[in-house]
Amino acid sequence: MTISNAKISAVEMYVPEKILTNKELEKMVDTTNEWILERTGIRTRHICEKGQAASDLAAEAVIKLCKKRGISPKDIELIIVPTVTPDMLFPSTACLLQEKIGADNAWGFDLSGACSGFLFALSVAEKYIQTGIYRRVVVVGSEIMSSIADYTNRETCVLFGDAAGAVLLEPAEEGEKGIIDILLRCDGSGGKYLYMPGGGSLHPATHETVDKKMHYIHQQGRRVFKFAVTEMANISREIMKKNNITSDQVKLYVPHQANMRIIKACQANLGFTDDQIIINIQKYGNTTSATIPLCLYEASQEGRIKKGDYLVLASFGAGFTWGSILLQWEIENS
Ligand code: COA
Fold first, then answer.
1. Using 50, 70 and 90 to split pLDDT, how confident is the model at 1?
2. Which of 38, 67, 90, 260 is deepest in the core (most CB within 10 A)?
3. Residue 159's domain is classified under what CATH number?
4. Are 184 and 131 part of one and the same domain?
5. What is the mean pLDDT of the chain?
6. Are residues 244 and 286 in the same domain?
7. What secondary structure, in 3-state letters, does the chain show?
8. Mean pLDDT of 142-160
């Protein structure tokens, strides 16, 4: 069996046009622009129109991704869609997306890893490339968090936004490293702090589940916050140590974007300078499995990363789930 590293060979994103500002949220719930900015760092988030689903956002991102790489959707062999907001419980968003973009030669599936979904999905995609089974795998984190946010609950609705971010994985070429190492974790005892209880097999949708708002995000913010600042920093440090990479060798740290204060605490803990970290939560809010590809796309567009740079990706999310990936960026700046 040929073992070759996998590399990210293209990255794209899509956000819906409509923007929801903090000022608009002030009219919907008992909050202020100042509170949201100070406690979360978020200024705006993009929100879908009614009728738009996760597969629609994913389709926009993947079509752009194929164009950028100069391939047809028919060249894709596998599609993995990490998401907590699939179009429906089944069929999978990956199947609906496959039809929408005409990826006739691909199969695919959804993956449930919450805000760590993108890293979990990258790890699966990487194995298919490493083993030589496939040469073109798409991972597209696509979320319509506005579909499960309760816009009468100020503690959650201000945090989230809608977006899709997609990467193409291909075999690394000679001299390229691509994905170097992956560490992933979960701790189910954290499940009670961030969850959506309704609509699954435990509490199938009924009038009662809807009346009790069980189809929305439920969260104990402070518990999640504490977990995030500790574990996202710890696992990032662990992956660097394991691979003998010091923080000054890292060109860009790409943390999950859930709260500016969590990001800043991890930055301080790991000793990264402002030039070594990407933060775009102010524009998009927390887009769950899409935050990391959104960051990769913007860093690449802005010329902040170039071929050969070391990147550390890091996430945490419901489950609890968390993880980190060390990679070498292999895309030439155009
Ligand atoms: N506007 C105004 N006040 C708000 C508010 C809002 N949008 N949301 C909460 N508050 C209030 C609370 O009701 C509370 O009021 P009280 O003191 O009168 O009871 C006060 O602000 C402080 O609440 P607290 O929960 O301690 O605030 P916080 O500083 O922890 O910030 C979060 C709340 C949710 C922003 C923060 O805990 C957080 O980001 N946690 C992590 C969430 C996360 O990352 N989730 C996704 C994981 S992938």
1. low
2. 260
3. 3.40.47.10
4. no
5. 97
6. yes
7. CCCCCEEEEEEEEECCCCEEEHHHHHHHCCCCHHHHHHHHCCCEEECCCCCCCHHHHHHHHHHHHHHHHCCCHHHCCEEEEECCCCCCCCCCHHHHHHHHHCCCCCEEEEECCHHHHHHHHHHHHHHHHHCCCCCCEEEEEEEEHHHCCCCCCHHHHCCECEEEEEEEEEECCCCCCCEEEEEEEECHHHHHHEECCCCCCCCCCCHHHHHCCCCCCEECHHHHHHHHHHHHHHHHHHHHHHCCCCHHHEEEEEECCCCHHHHHHHHHHHCCCHHHECCCHHHHCECHHHHHHHHHHHHHHCCCCCCCCEEEEEEEECCCEEEEEEEECCCCCC
8. 98
Separation of 274 CA from ligand 1 center, angstroms? Answer: 25
Task: Give the atom of ligand 1 at the shortest distance from the alpha carbon of 155.
Answer: 8
Kindly report the pTM of this predicted structure. 0.97
Q: Are residues 264 and 209 in the same domain?
A: yes
Separation of 144 CA from ligand 1 center, angstroms?
A: 21
Q: Is 4 in the pocket of ligand 1 (CB under 6 A)?
A: no
Residue 10's domain comprises 6-171
